Amino acid sequence: MVERPAARKKQKKSVVFKFKNLAILSLLVYAVVVLVSQQVAIAEKKKENQKIRSQIVSAQQTQDETSRLLSMFEKDPKKAMEQMAIERLGYADKNETRIFDASKN
């Protein structure tokens, strides 16, 4: 059997076409895998970002409270101590009665 040149060209084009298709398909699969992995990484970073933002808010509230207490102590240390005893320890003055809402847990 003698192969004709036209048949060889057709067979060669078919192999090249299959190789191109395989290469394109491989690139597309790679691109999809990379895209999905990037989306996962972005989602993780967003969660981390949100956690850090909540920590910043908490730290800012603590700083504000500390600044408030410091300014109270600078103005009137005795009154500031009384206020802290009332707020943090639940103390009351001699003629004062504290009422607590037991429905709040």
What features would you describe in this structure?
This protein is mainly alpha-helical and 105 residues long. 80% of the residues lie in helices and 0% in strands. It is built from two helices and no strands. The protein has helices spanning 5-75, 77-89. The longest helix is centred in the middle third of the chain and has 71 residues, at 5-75. It is rod-shaped and about 115 Å long. The chain starts with a helix and ends in a 16-residue tail after the last helix.
Mean pLDDT: 87
User: Low-confidence spans: pLDDT under 50, at least 5 residues?
Assistant: none
**Strand percent estimate:** under 5%
H and E string: HH
Q: Structural class of the secondary elements? A: mainly alpha
How many individual β-strands? 0
Instruction: Report the end-to-end length measured between terminal Cα atoms.
Output: 95 Å
Instruction: Note the main sheet.
Output: none
State the helical fraction.
over 70%
Total number of helices? 2
Radius of gyration: 37 Å
Shape annotation? rod-shaped
